[in-house]
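Sequence in, structure out. First:
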Amino acid sequence: MTERRFDDDSTDARLCVAGLVYFEIFLPDEGLDVTPGEETFVERIDVGLGGALNPATVAAALGIETTVAHPSGDGLTDDAVAAARDKLGIAALTWPAGDDPAISLIRSADKERSFVSCADRQALRNCPELSVFDWLHIPGLEEAHQLAAQIERARSTGVTVSVAGSWAPARLDALNEVTQPIWDVLLLNGREARRATESCPSMAARARQLTDVANDVVVTDGPGAVHAAVGGCEYSFQVPPVENFVDATGAGDSFGAGYIAARLKNIEPEKALKFAISVARLVVTQRGGLVDKPSRFNVLREQL
């Protein structure tokens, strides 16, 4: 059964983030020496939620009316996701799936992350219509592939659609075959942009080339630079280091959510990109990309 927490005629439900919500277990960064046949104790194991809930909670913390759409079963992690949504006041649109449809083990070292994940991606195909929103965001190319029919119908009714990369090599390779925009906004990191484009002299040129796939393209090239081709204009920014950096998990999601929030507030592209950088710089000072303390975003929310 589909769960909805807004009226069909409501004008408040503006942004929908559709995809999988992951239950995340953060393995210790250093000193994990496991002996076969023995139990190893560490000082702390962090757990959290991610996937579609990351950009949804960021957007909500920035004052955007946000709904997260995701498959859900009856497992323990499904209960944890529902409890977190209720606690954070995030509206939900759900449909049946197998129990515990998305789980990740995350290891961070030297500001890089490694994942061991399981995901019931095919459950996304049963997603209901998503045409009642102003903006639809899909946080991964693989998820966008599974939701292609829903995306096409939403765009046909005037919904703005954005898609993030989330490192899906086969889907990145397939972007080379696209000859006309299938989405409104494409958000990639530098590694994804390199995989998705032919040899280009610069990252700005890669962003420009990818406008064959989406009308607007934004590339975050590591932690230090952002390049974009938006509305026929090109933008490039250098980003200073974050002194109190904790974890890069969710950095791309938070940047995307910040950009979407600014654009939904009709902020011009250059200022929207700079705002998105500020949002991402704040999120990397915490563990994971989910915002469980919206008050940390009070200053940024007021800027909107």
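Second:
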Amino acid sequence: MSLESIRLLVVEDDVEINELICSYLRKENYQVLQAFNGQEALERLQGNLIHMVILDLMLPIIDGFEVMRHIRAKSRMPILILSAKREETDKIIGLGLGADDYMEKPFSVRELVARTKAALRRSFYLAEPVQQAMQYGDIILDPENGTITKGGSSVSATAKEFLLLKTFFSYPKKIFTKAQLFDSVWGENYETDDNTVTVHIRRLRIKIEDDPSHPRYVETVWGIGYRLGDFR
């Protein structure tokens, strides 16, 4: 897996620290999403392919411990705790809940980057080596090879179109808002540009739908967003 395809989530309520960490990680060519409280972190994790979380413990709304419990209930992704809590009991609790590493504030950003790289190396070494192909209707999406076929014929899709379809295939029952799709595929905060998602959905439909004006694979849920059609 290339560095450009690795997506990290930085959960830190201090805006300056959050931005500092993200700037260093982006210089290493990682994709980075940001969250500034526990609720926002859980929203980022839902519907986004995240490979690692850098997590502060003292967060507004939902604390870092609870965020970590939610993550570990569903995923083995690496979690690096970054916290001003220096008591040994906090470190023991954090590691006991499933954190892979623990750094105290103040910290060295360069060391944080080095620990992030080490955690990712361990994660991908232990991960399943092959991503299984996914099929809905007569479309097969192969994450390992980055290919899409429809009825046995190759579909020439762009990287963003591939990621859009992979997002739908990965969560077949989920309705995605445009903001969630933008965050998931472009790895950026969604603001006022809802035309980007609309245009890419239209182009994807032209390539995979028998009748793009009456889509069966990528359905519009009026007033909400999009979802994968039901082929089961």
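Remark: The first helix runs from residue 15 to 27.
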